[in-house]
Design goal:
Glutaredoxin, Glutathione S-transferase Yfyf (Class Pi), Chain A, domain 2, globular, GST N-terminal domain-containing protein, GST_Omega/HSP26, Thioredoxin-like_sf, Glutathione_S-Trfase_N
């Protein structure tokens, strides 16, 4: 398999973490791309120019992180990433909403320097804060096994700390923060920390 990726994307990170957890990382060639550079090979794989994009061994081009995770669950022999029932998927959705809002701010800043204080930016920061609080309230009931709720929660917290280090994100979700710290040496966590 071939994964088009970016080392800072939280959507890429949840796929990379799942690949490691499922023992599929060694069978995947990860190609780091600049999603803004419009590389022809990358655009041939995904005309939307978005990461992650996975090309399967039979040449299918899969886009969108959750669709890729579904495929990895179908081919992997280890526990399903998307398991756990409605409560787990609900918590994972909150965590994904947190880092989706953060990505929207980063992209919004490219076109509007005052994005953070405008209507959309203000709403996105509210989503990040309230999402972390809500996630922390339910996290103990859905963090095991180490599936999408845990992966997405760790990704959300790490991404906010990486992109917005001047905020106290951990104070909003002390349970998630403690869990993240306890997982610091787990290969899927340690080897995918955002860098840029």
């Amino acid at each position: 398999m071939k994964l088009y990726a970016n080392p800072t994307s939280p959507f890429v990170r949840i796929v990379r973490m799942a690949l490691i957890e499922k023992g599929l990382n060694e069978a995947t060639d990860t190609i780091i791309v600049d999603a803004w550079a419009d590389d022809p090979a990358f655009l041939a794989a995904n005309p939307a120019g978005r990461v992650p994009t996975l090309i399967t061994d039979d040449g299918a081009r899969l886009t969108e992180a959750l669709l890729i995770l579904s495929y990895l669950d179908a081919i992997g022999t280890r526990p399903a990433t998307l398991a756990g029932g409605p409560a787990a998927l609900s918590a994972a959705g909150v965590a994904i909403g947190v880092f989706d809002a953060a990505v929207a701010v980063i992209i919004g800043r490219k076109s509007a320097p005052d994005f953070d204080t405008g209507l959309v930016g203000t709403k996105r920061f509210r989503t990040m804060r309230e999402g972390l609080r809500r996630l922390d309230a339910v996290f103990d009931t859905v963090r095991q096994p180490f599936g999408l709720p845990a992966i997405a929660a760790i990704t959300a917290l790490d991404y906010l700390e990486f992109r917005f280090p001047d905020h106290d994100w951990r104070g909003l979700c002390p349970g998630v923060a403690a869990f993240r710290d306890a997982q610091a040496d787990r290969p899927s966590v340690r080897d995918t920390v955002p860098r840029g």
